[in-house]
């Protein structure tokens, strides 16, 4: 039963398992105690810190173990912002950071600070120049992920780190998705990681604070882990985390090359096998093991269940698969289709034959979901797919939106579709069904109150070549001009 | 090699080990995911929560798993105080709470709140009436441990919880030391625990927030664990924690009776075997497995090392064994001797013959440390020891201190000992050496700048029957009147 959701969590690496079980016997005591059990625990902790620091490329005394990657990010943001309070209270983040960073940013804002989100292009990457321009006077901290967790796009971290250094602003790098593969280049100041993403056990994160970085840990004081991670340490898991990081790094180059080839195959084949698909994320500057695509006229949750029944575990950024009813903020920031979204993230050791079987099963799974929803017919390999690799669609849509202002009065050939109260992907399906009923140049207005429509209707227009004229002032109507 | 430091951390219970290893294979995925690995993880998490809730005596939806007991306490205090902000910003804690509670209280104070510490008697217990009297208008939260971690004294939690309910103030109970033995009685509102204290793995704490308790979690938002514990959960450890809590509870009554008898033996025999010893903590209302005593004229760290060489792992609240240079706040609040302090805490399964061997080794270990320090001779079973069970020494010392005001001028038979720059237990040793050089009624002034002297000189006076006249205004001189 192939598990293709490595970006969520990876099964324990054999080295992690072995180290964890051994450390249960050796590392259960309090490393702050003077007795032999305490000294033994201290030695294990020191050795684990040394190992992890070597893998990260930092000094051991710069690295603390936290209970999770999320807590490393929360503490990293709060501590760096508090430490730089005199410099200002402005925080700069990319729009596609992990929710842990965005939640920390929201807490900073609630506390009276200000936050700027740097936009990304259609591939999901920030522009280093735009990021540098956002480092205004009073910026206490900047945050940028090493690679995106949903679409796999690598960020230009080294360049952004240089720009931050030039501006005198510390950069916090969320390296959760990439630390299994390599250390992070560039003069960053803080870095966070999460062991269960690299095959270590859950319950262990890393927070690195470079010497010379001002840092004031938030919350009640605690003498452990340089005051940056309160609570009795999770030593057996820490030992396992460090040992497995070293182990996965030893295998990283070969495994990355192997998985990259498998992902390339998925990127190429999926649009050939399934119609109306948008493969998203940078095709070159990306994590070796992640590929994400969205399928028009597909309910993401239904597709996940269909794939699950076929034996494949994947995840989705579609709104219908989460509790929030809003599509993934990453897909939204990229301006790409969110409906029928599937992320395939291959764990180390993923087998070629399982990937082939996935490619064989996917068309039937998509077709069955589309049939249930009464979606329009889709032909594989439709011209729209070529835009998936980060074409100029987003800017086109933006121009189209401006153009709409000038053409408000030419609506004699108009039609309105009421999709109020329906959820993704129904509004887009209803639109697709009627677009042929207006003449070329005619306008369809879709009434829809599902959050995803705001993203998916423009994305559909870009894929189909129609002109998106923009949303109504109340955000529950969308106008589309038929192109051909 | 007997490990007698169970109150710090207990080796993994066999059931915890078994459950943890099994859950490494079954419980590594994200329980929020829809695929089969996620659903399996969710089932394990739900079952663990049900099991833990049964042991605590709460509803499963009242219980969240945190990364540590410390984080449960930090979040519990901050969340309850924030939730009750309208009621006021006053926090009431006992003076002998775990440092995690006192650090949370200090953070509350730094944030503009107020804190009152309820004093304890010589046994280490709060008086329920005094605690109730401290619940003044504007009290947002009260905190009381179920039992003390350093001296084993049980607190009158049920009565204090009733008083809190009557006053409309939520009570947070730190049950870290007692949860292995039993659920906590009384109408408490919040409760915290720590798995590695009951034989579960490190990396798991419990925070229980009763329905109807106002609670606003601190820090950045996170959808997991009711928003009370951000970060990817440590599921294998959570499963092991819950399974082991159920397992230790099944054995608790029999094991408690057995350990209680061993501790009673230590309490009785130590003063018979070693001179100038004060056994501290309540002799009856106490944890079954903890006994603490302090030895005059002994360097706690040296004694710990001597016992470690003899094969026994214990801990100490003496200042010379910690990094802070101040003696344990618990011993200080109790007003008992802090020098040469030893805490023996027996893990489940501790063997009678090991306890006997400890009793056989202890006198030699103490004697060797005293000899190194050139301490006065001590005779076992000295009368001072009978005061150890909570006699009126503390109030006597206080009266003596008041009496000192009236006798400032009768100092013709006086002597000054300069112990400035020396550390515990040297100032007390120097005092003991010269007390015979002044006549009965004569006064010795000790100059000492070690923090521990403030506690140990009055305690020595109480043990020896001399009159403590008080400290000088700058806190580096102490006056003692020879009694006999």
| Alpha carbon gyration radius of chain A | 24 Å
User: How confident overall, as mean pLDDT of chain A?
Assistant: 91
Strand content of chain A: 5-15%
CATH class wording of the largest domain in chain A = Alpha Beta
> How many strands, what sense, and barrel or not for the largest sheet of chain A?
7 strands, mixed
CATH-derived architecture of the largest domain in chain A: 3-Layer(aba) Sandwich
* CATH T-level topology of the largest domain in chain A: Aspartate Aminotransferase, domain 2
Oligomer: homodimer
Please give the count of helices of chain A: 13
Q: What would your notes on this structure say?
A:
2 copies of one chain form a homodimer. With 484 residues, chain A is α/β, with parallel strands linked by helices. The first copy, chain A, has 3 domains: 14-248, Type I PLP-dependent aspartate aminotransferase-like (Major domain) (Aspartate Aminotransferase, domain 2); 252-386, Aspartate Aminotransferase, domain 1, CATH 3.90.1150; 392-481, TusA-like domain (Translation Initiation Factor IF3, 2-Layer Sandwich). Helix content of chain A is 39%, strand content 14%. The first copy, chain A, has 13 helices and 14 strands. Chain A has helices spanning 14-26, 36-56, 69-83, 99-110, 128-133, 157-167, 235-273, 300-309, 329-334, 352-373, 393-406, 426-434, 453-464; strands spanning 63-66, 90-94, 114-118, 139-145, 171-174, 190-194, 205-209, 277-280, 290-295, 341-345, 414-418, 443-447, 467-471, 477-481. Chain A has a 7-stranded mixed beta sheet, sandwiched between helices. Chain A has a 4-stranded mixed beta sheet with strand order 11-12-14-13. In chain A, strands 8-9-10 form a 3-stranded antiparallel beta sheet. In chain A, strand 13 and strand 14 (477-481) form a beta hairpin. The longest helix of chain A is centred in the middle third of the chain and has 39 residues, at 235-273. The radius of gyration of chain A is 24 Å and the shape is globular. The model of chain A is unreliable at 382-409 (pLDDT under 50). The interface between A and B is large, with 64 and 64 residues. Chains A, B: InterPro entries: Aminotrans_V_dom, PyrdxlP-dep_Trfase, PyrdxlP-dep_Trfase_major, PyrdxlP-dep_Trfase_small, TusA-like, TusA-like_sf. Chains A, B: Belongs to the class-V pyridoxal-phosphate-dependent aminotransferase family. NifS/IscS subfamily. Chains A, B: Its cofactor is pyridoxal 5'-phosphate.
């Amino acid at each position: 039963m192939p598990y293709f959701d490595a970006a969520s969590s990876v099964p324990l690496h054999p080295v992690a398992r072995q180290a964890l079980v051994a450390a249960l016997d050796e590392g259960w005591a309090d490393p702050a105690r003077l007795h032999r059990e305490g000294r033994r625990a201290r030695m294990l902790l020191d050795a684990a810190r040394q190992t992890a620091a070597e893998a990260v490329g930092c000094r051991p005394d710069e690295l603390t173990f936290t209970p999770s990657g999320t807590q490393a990010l929360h503490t990293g943001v709060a501590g760096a912002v508090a430490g730089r309070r005199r410099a200002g209270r402005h925080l700069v983040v990319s729009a596609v950071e992990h929710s842990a960073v965005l939640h920390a940013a929201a807490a900073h804002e609630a506390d009276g600070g200000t936050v700027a989100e740097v936009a990304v292009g259609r591939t999901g990457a920030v522009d280093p120049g735009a990021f540098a321009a956002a480092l205004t006077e009073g910026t206490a901290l900047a945050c940028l992920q090493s690679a995106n967790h949903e679409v796999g796009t690598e960020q230009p971290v080294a360049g952004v780190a240089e720009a931050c250094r030039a501006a005198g602003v510390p950069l916090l790098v969320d390296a959760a998705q990439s630390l299994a593969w390599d250390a992070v280049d560039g003069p960053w100041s803080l870095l966070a990681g999460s062991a269960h993403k690299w095959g270590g056990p859950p319950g262990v994160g890393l927070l690195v604070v470079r010497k010379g970085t001002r840092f004031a840990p938030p919350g009640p004081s605690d003498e452990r882990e340089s005051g940056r991670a309160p609570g009795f340490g999770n030593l057996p898991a820490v030992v396992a985390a460090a040992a497995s990081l070293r182990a996965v790094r030893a295998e990283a180059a070969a495994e990355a090359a192997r998985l990259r080839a498998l992902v390339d195959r998925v990127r190429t084949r999926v649009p050939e096998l399934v119609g109306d698909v948008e493969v998203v994320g940078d095709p070159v500057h990306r994590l070796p093991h992640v590929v994400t695509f969205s399928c028009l006229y597909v309910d993401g949750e239904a597709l996940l269940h269909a794939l699950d029944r076929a034996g494949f575990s994947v995840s989705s950024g579609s709104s219908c698969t989460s509790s929030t009813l809003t599509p993934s903020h990453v897909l939204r920031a990229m301006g790409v289709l969110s409906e029928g979204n599937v992320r395939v993230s291959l764990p180390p050791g993923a087998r070629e034959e399982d990937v082939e079987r996935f490619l064989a099963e996917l068309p039937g799974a998509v077709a069955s979901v589309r049939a249930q929803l009464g979606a329009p017919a889709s032909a594989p390999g439709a011209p729209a797919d070529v835009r998936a690799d980060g074409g100029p669609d987003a800017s086109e849509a933006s121009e189209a939106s401006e153009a709409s202002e000038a053409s408000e009065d030419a609506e004699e050939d108009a039609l309105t579709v009421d999709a109020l109260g329906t959820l993704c992907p129904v509004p887009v399906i209803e639109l697709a069904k009627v677009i042929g009923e207006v003449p070329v140049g005619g306008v369809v207005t879709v009434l829809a109150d599902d959050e995803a429509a705001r993203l998916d209707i423009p994305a559909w227009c870009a894929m189909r070549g129609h002109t998106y004229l923009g949303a109504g002032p109340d955000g529950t109507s969308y106008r589309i001009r038929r192109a051909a």
